[in-house]
DNA sequence: ATAAATTCTAGTTTATTAGTATACTTTTGA
DNA sequence: TCAAAAGTATACTAATAAACTAGAATTTAT
């Protein structure tokens, strides 16, 4: 149930871009790479993929760089993970984007499939509902919470997600 | 976010065993392999791993085979997946069983981490609460529902999971 | 024009996955 | 007892995917 480095780096880069003063201003690859500790050449590939998928836009030449193709609240983590890492589903027979029939006799009564469908839905529910804007908001809240650690139960459920 | 073949085959084998008349009676590898369409030699390895993890027991010799070490309701899918495929967490910095510090400046305010923690918890909530017995029950319910497809909305949410 | 930037294609290396092969040990029914 | 049935234990291999790396081509502000 693992996210690859491509997915991890891509998400970090987008979250980084969304956190910039103007998310639509061009930012250079090397700056993102430095801030997020990502190998520059690898990040290049990843951002290019995201550009081809319509998540990013770029401007070449001097003063160029990458910027978000849409508003942060219009980009979900689910889209991004699918582009970089493929389907969210643990097994292909419960995938929406890359369904493949499994060898079991009857999908409707396959125990593994029934459970893994729940898992895939739980993952998709989170990632498809969480936008870059949501992440930015959570980060800001967490930063404020850190500055004044007044009273805070050790298991403070910080589920600050804007309902959309 | 993928389950490997090891995990898939292991779960299928255990679900198969739990579905047998007496889940504590010995079943031969080759029978499981045939029913579930799993390469025998590969399944051998997987079942051995599950035995060493205390999920299965075995008896050698004539009339031998594998059987569950515990009651089906005592074996969760979460345990099994962790044994065969490793941590449930999408990234190591939100893993309970294999935590590793990530490179970000501050984990408490890392946007990716906050979201992936939600994902890891959603996955764990399902897999750690679902037992082999639960799966058997769901399969039976699904089989009955199939025989009399009386009225059934096309999106019938079949969340028949025993609360424990 | 040119330097700074992205674009694009391809290659490399390492790790993991998914299996095979082989020899050995234990158990037990005849 | 002993041969067959079963699991045990390792080692090996092919294929694929992950994680980079290299370098030439292209774009563009100045």
List the helices and strands and how they pair.
2 copies of one chain form a homodimer.
Chain A: H1 5-19, H2 29-36, H3 40-52, E1 56-59, E2 65-68, H4 77-85, H5 111-127, H6 132-147
The structure holds a DNA duplex (30 and 30 nucleotides).
Question: What report would you give on this structure?
Answer:
The structure is a homodimer of 164-residue chains. With 164 residues, chain A is mainly alpha-helical. Chain A has 6 helices and 2 strands. Chain A has helices at 5-19, 29-36, 40-52, 77-85, 111-127, 132-147, and strands at 56-59, 65-68. A two-stranded antiparallel sheet of chain A has the order 1-2. In chain A, β1 and β2 (65-68) form a beta hairpin. In chain A, α1 (5-19) crosses α3, α1 (5-19) packs antiparallel against α4 (77-85) and α1 crosses α6 (132-147). The longest helix of chain A has 17 residues, at 111-127. The first copy, chain A, is globular and about 60 Å long. Residues 155-164 of chain A have low confidence and may be disordered. The A-B interface holds A 1-3, 8, 11-12, 15, 19, 37, 77, 81, 85-91, 103, 106, 108-112, 114-116, 118-119, 122-123, 125-127, 130, 135-136, 138-139, 142-143, 146, 158-159 and B 1-3, 8, 11-12, 15, 19, 37, 77, 81, 85-91, 103, 106, 108-112, 114-116, 118-119, 122-123, 125-127, 130, 135-136, 138-139, 142-143, 146, 158-159. Chain B binds a DNA duplex (30 and 30 nucleotides) through α3.
């Amino acid at each position: 149930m693992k996210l690859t480095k491509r997915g991890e780096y891509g998400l970090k880069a987008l979250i980084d871009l969304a956190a910039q003063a103007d998310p639509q201003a061009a930012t250079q690859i090397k700056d993102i790479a430095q801030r997020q500790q990502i190998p520059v050449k690898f990040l290049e590939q990843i951002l290019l993929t995201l550009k081809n998928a319509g998540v990013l836009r770029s401007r070449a030449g001097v003063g160029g760089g990458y910027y978000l193709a849409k508003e942060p609240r219009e980009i979900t983590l689910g889209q991004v993970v699918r582009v970089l890492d493929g389907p969210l589903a643990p097994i292909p027979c419960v995938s929406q984007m890359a369904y493949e029939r499994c060898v079991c006799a009857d999908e409707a009564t396959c125990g593994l499939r029934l459970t893994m469908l729940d898992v895939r839905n739980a993952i998709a529910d989170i990632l498809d509902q969480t936008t870059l804007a949501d992440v930015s908001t959570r980060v800001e809240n967490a930063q404020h919470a850190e500055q004044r650690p007044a009273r805070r139960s050790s298991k403070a459920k910080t589920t600050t997600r804007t309902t959309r």
